[in-house]
From TrEMBL:
Compartments, record wording: Membrane
Biological-process GO terms, alphabetical: intracellular zinc ion homeostasis
Primary localization class, coarse: membrane
Protein name (record): Cation diffusion facilitator family transporter
Family: Belongs to the cation diffusion facilitator (CDF) transporter (TC 2.A.4) family. FieF subfamily.
Annotated source species: Shewanella chilikensis
A molecular-function term among this protein's GO annotations: ferrous iron transmembrane transporter activity
This protein's UniProt keywords: Ion transport, Iron, Iron transport, Membrane, Transmembrane, Transmembrane helix, Transport, Zinc, Zinc transport
InterPro entries documented for this protein: Cation_efflux, Cation_efflux_CTD, Cation_efflux_CTD_sf, Cation_efflux_TM, Cation_efflux_TMD_sf, CDF_Transporter
Membrane topology designation: Multi-pass membrane protein
Biological classification of the source: Bacteria, Pseudomonadati, Pseudomonadota, Gammaproteobacteria, Alteromonadales
GO cellular component, one term: plasma membrane
Cited Pfam families: Cation_efflux (PF01545), ZT_dimer (PF16916)
Membrane-crossing segments per the record: 7-28, 34-55, 76-97, 109-131, 151-172, 178-196
Chain ranges of the Cation efflux protein transmembrane domain: 9-206
Amino acid sequence: MSRKARAAMVSVCSNISLIIMKVAAGIVSGSVSIISEAIHSAMDLVAALIALFAVRRADVPPDWDHPYGHDKIENVSGVIEALLILAAAGWIIFEAVGKLLSPSEVEGLGWGVLVMLLSALVNTGVSAYLYRVAREEQSVALEADALHLKADVLTSLGVAVGLLLIWVGGYFGHNLALLDPIVAIGVALFILKEAISMLDQAFKPLLDHSISEEELNRAAEIIAHHCPNEGGFHDLRGRQAGRRRHIDFHLTLPKEMSVGHSHAICDRIEQALMAAIPHAAVFIHVEPLEEQPEEEGLLQQGA
């Protein structure tokens, strides 16, 4: 099992444990905010399962049907995860509005606060681990899963604070039960923001969105550094698929240069790009460097 797959499996196991605890606490207390957190964790579990499938499939080498590899499966999984989060947020808002219209007492608050704090603690550790692996392995699916859990940390803490305020208010004779659905709506709005951000990040590579300007500039610097003085390059472009960066450009070299010499220059540029930009796939189209007509040169000088 690869490192990415092991990280996804850790997320699956932690989410199963937290769902069981949150569902139990929600049933005992009748708190819609705890139930909303259980739903959030259920979506996290689905996301973790999708991420586990995606990272294992993305590592499959290119084949006859997919000659450019399977990297985009990670982006597809990110889009599915984002849509699941949107659906969960909508359901939470629906339930919370119902509680606002028909308020009910919340019980077992101490148990609920304890479960929420424990959930936040567990997810803080798992999320940090997933982020580290995602950055090192350039995994979109794991990064999306880590984002799920980071949101879960913040929403769990929000629910814990809301339940604590209701608990303290009860000691002073103040009924703050309406805080429960209000906190649940706050959780849902935060989840919506998370989902929209994730959807944007995961969907762009499916449309062959360009790699970052920083990466393109870095690639241009490397090509210029390794390109001979009498050569040049143009039409540099790049796109992202999962962790893979596809980079291609046209390299102009003197037409008298041998094929072997041209190939050696291309190899040096390709190796330098792959060393500087992890998981880069480089394609170089070599063209003969034509001498500029004297008349055209004079026109450009005078322009």
